[in-house]
Every structure is written in structure tokens, then in C-alpha cells.
Amino acid sequence: MRTKFLPGLLAACLLSACGGSDGVGVAAPVFVSPAPSDPVVPVAPPVAPPVKPTFGAQVSFGDSLSDVGTYAVGAVKTLGGGTFTVNGDHTAIDPALTGKTWTVVLAARLGLAAPCAAQTGLDGDASSGFAVPVESHAGCLGYAQGGARVTHPVGPGNKLTGSALGALTVPVATQIANHLAISGGRFKADDMVQVMAGGNDVLLELAALNASAIAAGETAGSTAYVSNLVGLLAAGATNPATAAQAIGAAAATAQGSPGSTLTSVTQAAIGAAAVQPGNSAVAAAAVWGPMVKQANADAATAGAAAGTAYFNAHAPDLVDRMTTAGAELAALVKDQVLGKGAQFVVVNNLPDVAGTPAGRKESAGGRGLIAAMVQAFNAQLDTALSGDARVLLVDAYALSHETAANPAGYGLTNVTDTACDLNAARNPLQSSLVCNGSNLKPGDVSHYAYADEVHPTPYYHALLAGYVAQKMAERGWL
Known about the structure:
With 478 residues, this protein is α/β, with parallel strands linked by helices. It has helices spanning 7-18, 74-78, 102-109, 172-182, 199-234, 240-255, 262-274, 285-337, 357-360, 364-385, 396-405, 458-475, and strands at 30-31, 42-43, 57-62, 119-123, 131-136, 191-196, 344-348, 391-394, 414-418, 448-450.
């Protein structure tokens, strides 16, 4: 797993395989002595195996899965965090708890120095220790940032989402532009470039749809509640139709008042109902209580139906947006990475987000939508980037499916729960960003797949790094 590329050994291998000692690793042509009447037919020399590339640097772009410490500052650092996994070297607890993400593991496999964050800082709540000046670090080529999206500047944890953390969430498009700005507008021919993004586009798009669906359900439920309550309260009046108009008007007035609540609207409706001819009995809690209960039940049913209808109606929009995001990432790779000189580019597609602990909490419809979003994104990468010899498209989606279906075969002991205790009392951010050996769940969690609800443990990061290395070896890059 940790074999390094050794030019000296490779040269020796070439000399041995070719039987030559002329210093270039290729034997001289061999000729067979022909019969006097036969033409001279040369035998082709053995073909030397291709020389594997030697990489001078690892340049990574993406999100939290590749972040090597953008937010390892301020209170995050004080809390023992900094990357989105189980932080810190806890190999004394278990050898798998290395604290390393896949880019760190792969850099060692390539014989390169451990990557460092190109930019660090936080733009959040100063009183909580989340306001730390943003700094760029010369020589550090780990541009990936937790919360980053493909092109949109606002991702999970960004202050514009209301988060106190103030994650920078510089999008991949800007990450690449930042690198080109300090590298003369070009990648070096021996750069090993890594790109992995799109997960935060899924998460924020889904969160926005869920919020809108909930709002639609609440609006429909509130309307249904008032309408049903008015009808129930008016039913005992001498003239129900006239009573309903008066009760409805009182409820509408209450709804329009500053500081209106469902309770204040209910009280206004009951008060108006009790003064209707023949309806004084409704003033008693024993009478109106069951009516309110029935109206609430009807409202819940109507709200749920409206929320589901909204979700289903707008779900295709999210698939379209992920199609666009995938096309945007592919275009960035083609135009701003390959088009700027990169010769070796690893692009990991999106893993199965629906299979994460967070995805498993969604409804069946929600999981189906997540799957469709991920597949739409990955299809764009496959269509645009397959067939280019400079690009190695790694199927992280397939790996996530294989490990979920056969965890024991990969040494995993749990693929559904989190290794980190995300209770706010032990983990203030409720995130792997500040998860470490002090706030893990009880028992042996070293071989869990997930640190938190969407981020892998160091053990799974090692699996991903090994998978990428295997694909690189198959391509002849390692």
C-alpha cells in the first residue's frame, strides 16, 4: 500500500527485462542468420515497458473530502479539529485512526510531501472563536475547502447560510483560478492534479427544496386549519352560513395583526363563534376543544399532502441543476486544467450520497432524488472526460456501493452509523470537523465508514486512496 516509485529500481528492472546493458534499457536488434537464398528478415527488438511518470507536486481542488486543513484555526483548532474526519493521530488506540484524508495518503504513496492547505481562515462569529484572518500559504497546493461547491460561492457552513462557523467555501472554479494566478497561468507537466467536488451542491440544493416544501406544507396546513375550524365552530349556530362569515372575518383580522399566532387566531375565532345566535355553548372548552383537535388533524393531513406535492413538483429541477453542475465541473477540468497544461488529472466522481447516514434519514422519495442527482452529475463527467488519456476518471460511486454491499470484504465494521459522537455537549459543531479521539462513540469505531453523517473516517479515506492508486497503476501512472 505504501510502495514508492523508485527510479533506480525501475531502471534496473528495464535493463534486466531487456537483457541489455547499454545504459538505456533497450537491447540492440537481433538478426537471425538466414539461408543463402533467403532474404534477411530482422526480428523486432523487445518493447520496453512504458516509463512511469515521476510527479513533482500534487495539486488538489474540491471540497471537505479533500480539505487538508483550511479551517484548522481559531476555535476549531482549539477543539482538536481541522479536517472533516476523525482528527489527529490516534494510532495508539487503533492503527486505522491515522487522522489522514485520502489526498494525504496518496501523496505519501507518490513519494510527495504531505499536502498543506493553500488558504486558511474563518469568517464567522468572533465571540465563538470563528473569526480568523484569511491567509494564503506559498508552496501549499491543497486548494480544496470544506463546503465548497463547483461554481457557487456559498456552501454549507458559509456565514450567508446563517452558520456561526463562517466557512470560506471558495468554489472549485475560483480555487483553480487562484492556482493559475500564482503559477504563471499554467500547470506543470509533472503535476498530479486531483479534482473531487459536487457533494455540497447536492446537499444545499436538497436542503433548499426541503425547506421550501416544509414552508408550502405549513402554509397549506394553516389555511386548512382556519377553514376547517371556522366550519366546525359555525355548525351549531342558528344560521351556520352567516356565522361562518362572521367567524372567518374575525380569524382573518387576527391573522393580519402584528405578532399573530395560531393561538391568537384560534381564540379570535372561538370568541366570534360564541356570540353567534344559538351558538353560546361553543365558548366552553369541552365544546371547542375537540373542534380544535379535529382542525389540527385535518391541517396536518393537508399540510403533508401539500409539502409532498411541492417536493415532487420541484424535484426534477434539482436533477437539472446537478446536470448543470456536472457539466460545469467537466468544463473546468477541460478548459482550465487540461487546457492550461496539466497532463495527469485524477477526477473522482460523486460517491453514493443517498447511502450516507444523512441520506438514510431521508424519505424514500428523498433518497431516490439524491440518487438521481448524483447520477446526473456523474453522467456529465463521464460523457465529457472519458477517453482523454490525460484524465483518470475514478468511480468513487462504485466503490461506495461495493463497500456498502460487502463491508466485511473491505474490513469495515459499520457502514450506516457515525464514529463521532455528534451530541452538542461533546461536539459543539456536531461535525467531524472537530471530531477527534476524545469525542468518539464508545467501543471500537476505527473501521466505521463514516465519521459524521456525510464524511468518511480515516480508514475509509485509506480505502479511497488505495482505490485511486489501483486505478493509477492500471493506467501506468503508478
